[in-house]
Design brief:
The chain is an alpha/beta fold. It contains 15 helices and 12 strands. Helix 1 packs across helix 6 and helix 9 packs across helix 10.
Length: 572
């Protein structure tokens, strides 16, 4: 009796319905949607959610509008005074409000606000002047150093709205102490230059005035669940974007809302071909709640997401004028292949392999769900240094419909559609973890060489090597057997590998909204590498490194066993 034919790992067998994407349709919808300002928890946002619900229902897709508690911070008016002169400014979401008389103190220029800039400087009770748009890392440093306020310097004449909380999602009893305890303002580059001239002349006293409305309020969350023929309990793809904005926010994030509707419309027309379901989520609390909507959903639907969600596709700020660069978008390692294929098919550009950043409502890595995109198309890098390359108008009142290029919006919707379609229609999930593990193996090998003979990483290196071989085999020589068994194994691999690569370890909590290096599980081992034999810190670092090695080996060995199970035994 001949052996069963081995299936080939491939992308969709049915062409994604990209020819149906209509830029004209999307622009007409976007003109309707652009009339609202959409601060989280406000009437304008509620009206925009109602409009989105009506659009889904017009496509025959029942949608549920939820309401949940979220910790939201809406900045109000702000200004700064120095030597009797009033200087215009904005405050930031999650800043402390000032007292009615203002927050006064001596101004200390800390340049770029780096850890080195803070080190050795006495800023207790003072106000720090820092270059660059507001961000949670600076807020955290200033709060810990005892500063009473921060004045951020915009790189140009526009002031960019930001949320400065390092707490991912709504704070808990355990994390509320991490919220910023400083008054935060942003001024223009020109006004900052004038402040620095006054500093040079010895005028160091400034007063910050900021009104900020922060607290718990109800926010909406729109969900549309679209099961496949396999039933309501079958695995599903999560497709999401945020609705709340700064000002009208037509690019960020109105264009994503409209592109998502277009992707869903076209996928729904071929629903009989789906191998798994599609769940749509439209979040609030992204801009003024530090991802409070998506984190609430992750917390309150954790068990279901763990059991059934295969991937998360998120879209943010597509279709902008001048957004011609498709090489810098992010993807978790397992989704890089289908993202790169979609971008190449639509643009001919080569995806650079940029790691998915910790942003864009990516509240699901603790569960073990790989994600892709967020910001998709970007401007070419220029001299203006913002947090990203989304355009000079990002997070300002200038984010209006004239910032959308219809052809770019159509292109970006087609790319997202290709990725969603691959995840829906492929019989076998097109997730490939081998590039991810290859990177881990390379770092482990280097660390092992540097730590010998102080610390043994041989077993970890060998496990990473074995898993690397097996994951490559999954792609090159897929196992015989049912697609259901294959897909279940891929899902379980995600639950093992994504938390190792994207979290510090607690699958049921959210790491801070600050940068996180690849494979955080290795961080204790990295700290040990930075010590020297005989250092006072070395024995303490070894304690952490042993625990990290245990966690890593446990995950790698379980992953090896999963893959071996698909082939009926260990790889020879």
């Amino acid at each position: 009796m001949s052996a069963p034919a081995r299936p080939q790992q491939a992308f969709s067998t049915v062409k994604a319905p990209v020819d149906g994407v209509s830029g004209a349709r999307m622009m007409e919808q976007l003109r309707q949607f652009a009339v609202w300002t959409k601060l989280a928890g406000t009437a304008g946002e509620a009206e925009s959610f109602a409009w989105l619900k009506a659009q889904l229902e017009s496509l025959g897709l029942p949608a549920t509008l939820l309401s949940h508690d979220a910790y939201i911070s809406l900045p109000g008016s702000a200004h700064l005074t120095c030597d009797g002169s009033r200087i215009g400014a904005i405050t930031q979401s999650m800043s402390q409000p000032s007292q009615p008389e203002g927050c006064s103190g001596k101004l200390v220029d800390l340049g770029d606000g780096s850890a080195d800039a803070f080190r050795g400087r006495d800023v207790n009770g003072r106000i720090v002047l820092v270059d660059g748009i507001a961000n949670p890392v600076i807020a955290m440093r200033a709060s810990r150093a005892g500063a009473s306020g921060i004045v951020h310097v915009s790189p140009h004449a526009l002031l960019h709205e930001m949320c400065i909380s390092p707490v991912w999602g709504s704070p808990s009893l355990a994390t509320r102490e991490d919220l910023p305890n400083v008054v935060v303002l942003t001024v223009t580059a020109e006004d900052a230059a004038a402040l620095r001239r006054r500093l040079a002349e010895g005028q160091t006293e400034v007063t910050l005035h900021a009104m900020v409305d922060t607290g718990w309020r109800k926010t909406p969350l729109l969900v549309a669940d679209m099961p496949c023929a396999a039933g309501a309990d079958a695995p599903f793809v999560l497709l999401s974007c945020h609705v709340d904005t700064w000002f009208h926010g037509v690019m960020d994030n109105g264009s994503a809302n409209i592109a998502m509707l277009e992707v869903v419309r076209l996928c729904a027309e071929l629903r009989d071909r789906w191998r798994r379901g599609l769940r749509l989520c439209f979040w609030s609390g992204h801009s003024q709640g530090r991802y409070s909507g998506s984190s609430w959903y992750a917390d309150n639907h954790w068990l279901e997401l763990d059991e059934r969600c295969v991937a998360h596709v998120n879209l943010d700020s597509p279709g902008a004028v001048g957004a011609t660069n498709l090489t810098q978008t992010g993807s978790a390692g397992a989704l890089f292949g289908i993202a790169a294929a979609a971008i190449a098919a639509e643009t001919g550009q080569v995806l650079a392999g940029k790691r998915k950043a910790r942003s864009a409502d990516d509240s699901f890595p603790g569960i073990g769900i790989p994600s892709v995109f967020g910001s998709l198309s970007t401007q070419e890098p220029g001299a203006l240094k913002l947090r990203n390359e989304l355009g000079w108008w990002w997070h300002t009142e200038h984010d209006l419909i004239d910032k959308i290029e219809p052809a770019h919006l159509e292109r970006d919707a087609r790319i997202v559609l290709r990725v969603v379609w691959d995840l829906l229609e492929n019989e076998r999930l097109p997730l490939d973890f081998s590039p991810q593990i290859a990177g881990l193996l390379a770092e482990l090998t280097g660390a092992s060489e540097r730590l010998k003979p102080r610390f043994d990483l041989d077993a970890a290196c060998e496990a990473a090597h074995q898993l690397d071989q097996r994951l490559k085999r999954l792609v090159q020589d897929p196992p015989a057997g049912s697609a259901e068994a294959f897909n279940r194994a891929i899902l379980e691999l995600s639950r093992l590998l994504v938390p190792l690569d994207y979290t510090t370890g607690n699958r049921f909590a959210h790491d801070p909204a600050t940068p996180l290096a690849a494979w955080p599980v290795l961080e204790p081992i990295r700290r040990l590498v930075r010590t020297k034999t005989g250092d006072a810190d070395e024995p303490f670092a070894k304690v952490d490194a042993v625990r990290a090695r245990n966690r890593l080996l446990h995950g790698l060995r379980k992953a090896i066993a999963l893959v071996d199970g698909l082939y009926g035994g260990a790889l020879q």
